[in-house]
Design goal:
The complex is a heterodimer. Chain A has helices at about 15-25, 30-45, 50-60. The longest helix of chain A is centred in the middle third of the chain and has 15 residues, at about 30-45. Chain A has three helices and no strands. In chain A, helix 2 packs antiparallel against helix 3. By secondary structure, chain A is mainly α. Chain B is α/β, with parallel strands linked by helices. In chain B, the strands form four sheets. In chain B, strands 1, 2, 4, 5, 6, 7 and 11 form a seven-stranded mixed sheet that branches. Chain B has a six-stranded mixed sheet with strand order 8-12-13-3-14-15. In chain B, helix 8 (about 195-245) packs across helix 9, helix 11 packs antiparallel against helix 12 and helix 14 runs antiparallel to helix 15 (about 405-430). Chain B starts with a strand and ends with a strand. Classes of the chains: A mainly alpha, B alpha/beta.
Chain lengths: ~70, ~650
């Protein structure tokens, strides 16, 4: 059985592509939060994260410290 | 690295059938194992026990009782040997025939204790994956082929989400929600007692909106499921009614004519609706009066050199004048106000829009009659369709009056289905619309409409967040949640599409002569319309082909390497498809275990005869209580049995 869909870190290509699509082109103010969120999602899929990682990403995304885009406000 | 699960064997003790005390040892790692067992020997029992051992889900008392080898046996055992990432595990399913209960033990050779522990102990991520629903996909029998295509099970999308670990992202979302709740609880704790009551009220209000939202979403998904089911059933009933008419010589010709007429009306109505809607979106085509007025407006705008002069330039010029266009004297105060407000009027993009509108009206070759003509023709067609439908109803009533009881029942069911579909459709509209005008028309409230309920929940969350000074935390958490959801949705879309494309590529080989393709992977596998036969049905063999193509596509690219265990893999397939299945599927899995009956040797099992790395095992009942097992290709090929009628067999 081939595993051609997988990347080196064990994530399926589709998830990597989705990360690239959604978090691949951040504004300057979002670079850090998007980067940390990518890592968190990767670790989450690999079942390798804890609550402090989630809290850190939320705190990094506090309004004023990052752009408001993607806030889910509709 | 993907997690690897391999079956290295199993054994039975005191289990009914021809497997009473049999041991299958696969520790020499054959890639393909063919276990030939006549019907009644214990294939179904084995599949049930394999699923129980992998999921840890207890068997029911009647299932336990059915496995008892004889009245004297008080206990039975099924032991499954697994390598999980090359670590041996032995899972015992212990059957207490007296109490009719079942329990599990696990032995992990590399654990410190090295002994047997009560319960099922496998790595957590694997345990999460191996739900009863999911295990059915790789411990598979033909009966499930229909279920994969059945609506309402939501097995396909759920499988993709579970297998590719997207459900982990649900956990992440829940963790974020939990953190928000903790943060708010912490903030509430430090609030003054006088504020506590208010906070409790806000918190309850938020919880109420959350509960309503969940219930609306549940109703929404139930509606969608019911709509799909009822539509499918209506299609079947429609075909049955049509067949019923066709069977009667007196009605056949008239029915065919009316069907053709209705079909033609439907086609025309679709085309006319499209053109009427297109005309409605082009103002110049809506009515001659509107066209004349638009042209007049365009001419005036041109004469007045608008919109150029109505841009901010106009106000700058006005500010330099002594008098306004209304003849009011412009003083310093007015001048400053005009200049300050100039930027509010007509930005460049708005000017572009007006100029484009002028150009479109000027160059339009519309007569203004287009919408009216389409609407008139549409009304005419709708009338004709109504007439044809009435003629069809009369014909059917005539037939019912002639004593066709079956048709009467079908018509009754058809009417009931249509009525229910209309109700469901209204409910879907009310729950799902996010269009503000539509919401007003339907008198939707936050308790009846998902979009309004979401907005209400957000508002209540904000109030609570503000009151607990956690506003920033909640806002950031919501932002992160939205991004996580976007990633999950995007990944799911990609995975579904990739599995669909891969499934269709396999179907092209498995069902080369039939246009059987998967159009969409939703809650179920939806086949493209040309894949259905004339009556909208799919044969058992076709279902199995679709299931194999889907399952192999789903499992072969997954981040888990799983065995594929299948009962009667080719019984319902014709010989040509069997050969294709026999050639394609084995290459897609690192391990396959196939339970076959002798009639599956032709076309399917014989495709393995020339392969290396195959184990051939034949098991049959030897007398009322005995079981017999023989290894090797020779025994496998020469085994003869009489299926179904008289379980049992012999080697020649």
């Amino acid at each position: 059985m081939t595993m051609s869909g997988d990347t080196a870190n064990g994530l399926n290509a589709a998830i990597e592509q989705a990360l690239e699509e959604v978090l691949g082109d951040p504004d300057e103010t979002d670079i850090e939060v998007y980067g940390r969120l990518r890592t968190l999602i990767r670790n989450c899929v690999a079942d390798n994260y804890d609550e402090s990682d989630v809290r850190a990403v939320i705190q990094l995304a506090f309004p004023g410290e990052a752009a408001d885009e993607g806030s889910g406000d509709d | 690295m993907p997690m690897k699960l391999r079956v290295t064997g199993w054994r039975y003790e005191n289990i009914r059938g021809g497997i009473r005390d049999v041991t299958i040892d696969l520790r020499n790692d054959p890639r393909w194992t063919l276990v030939q067992m006549p019907n009644g020997t214990g294939k179904t029992t084995t599949m049930t026990l394999l699923r129980a051992a992998l999921t840890g889900v207890e068997l029911t008392p009647s299932e336990v009782s059915d496995m008892r080898s004889d009245d004297g046996a008080t206990e039975g055992l099924f032991e499954l040997w697994l390598d999980i990432d090359d670590r041996p595990h032995r899972i015992q399913v212990v059957l207490d025939f007296v109490a009719q209960t079942c329990s599990f033990n696990t032995t992990r050779a590399q654990e410190q204790s090295g002994g047997s522990e009560p319960g099922l102990h496998i790595p957590l991520s694997l345990k999460r994956l191996l739900t009863p629903e999911f295990v059915k996909l790789f411990v598979f029998d033909g009966e499930f082929a229909k279920e994969i295509r059945a609506v309402g099970k939501d097995r396909t999308t759920t499988s993709i989400r579970t297998l590719y670990r997207l459900d982990q992202l649900d956990r992440l979302r829940k963790d974020i929600t939990k953190l928000v709740a903790e943060e708010q609880a912490r903030a509430a704790e430090v609030s003054k007692a006088s504020q506590q009551q208010g906070l409790t009220r806000l918190s309850n209000a938020r919880d109420e909106a959350e509960t309503v939202l969940k219930s609306l979403q549940k109703k929404q998904s139930e509606n969608a499921r019911e709509q799909t089911e009822k539509r499918a059933r209506l299609e079947v009933v429609d075909h049955a009614i049509s067949d019923r008419n066709a069977q009667d010589e007196r009605y056949r010709k008239r029915r065919a004519e009316l069907d053709a007429e209705l079909e033609e009306h439907e086609k025309q109505i679709r085309e006319l609706t499209t053109s009427a809607l297109a005309a409605m979106r082009t103002p110049a085509k809506v009515s001659p009066v509107l066209l004349t007025r638009l042209r007049s407006l365009g001419d005036r705008l041109t004469t007045l050199q608008l919109p150029k002069t109505i841009s901010s330039e106009f106000f700058h010029e006005l500010a330099r004048s002594k008098h306004c266009v209304c003849d009011t004297l412009i003083g310093e105060k007015e001048r400053a106000a005009i200049l300050a407000g100039a930027s509010r009027y007509l930005a460049e993009d708005q000017i572009t829009v007006i100029n484009r509108m002028k150009k479109t009206v000027r160059e339009s070759d519309a007569s203004g009659e287009e919408f009216g003509e389409a609407a008139t023709e549409l009304r005419k067609r709708l009338r004709l369709r109504r007439g044809a439908q009435q003629s069809l109803d009369s014909l059917q009533q005539e037939q019912v009056a002639g004593g066709d009881v079956e048709l009467e029942a079908l018509l009754k069911e058809q009417a009931e289905l249509k009525r229910r579909l209309e109700d469901v459709s209204k409910s879907i509209d009310l729950l799902g619309t996010s269009d503000r005008i539509r919401q007003m028309v339907l008198q939707a409230t936050w308790k009846t409409n998902v979009a309004l309920c979401r907005a209400e929940l957000k508002l209540r969350e904000q109030k609570l967040a503000t009151a607990t000074n956690t506003f920033n935390f909640v806002k950031a958490a919501r932002r992160i949640t939205a991004l996580v959801e976007k990633v999950a949705e995007d990944a799911l879309d990609r995975l579904r599409e990739s599995v669909r494309v891969s499934t269709n590529a396999k179907l092209e080989r498995l069902a080369a002569s039939e246009p059987l393709r998967v159009a969409k992977i939703g809650t179920a596998l939806e086949l493209s319309s040309e894949g259905h036969n004339a009556k909208g049905g799919v044969s058992e063999g076709q279902s199995l082909s679709v299931a194999y193509a889907f399952l192999t596509s789903l499992l072969s690219e997954a981040p888990y390497k799983l065995p594929f265990i299948v009962d009667s893999p080719a019984v319902s397939l014709d010989v040509q498809v069997r050969r294709e299945v026999g050639e394609i599927i084995p290459e897609l899995f690192d391990q396959m275990i196939m339970f076959v009956i002798s009639s599956e040797r032709d076309g399917f099992a014989d495709a393995f005869y020339a392969r290396e790395d195959v184990r051939f095992i034949t098991i049959w009942r030897d007398g009322p209580d005995g079981s017999h097992m023989e290894e090797g290709l020779e025994a496998f090929r020469s085994f003869h049995s009489v299926e179904v009628a008289a379980p049992g067999g012999k080697l020649q």
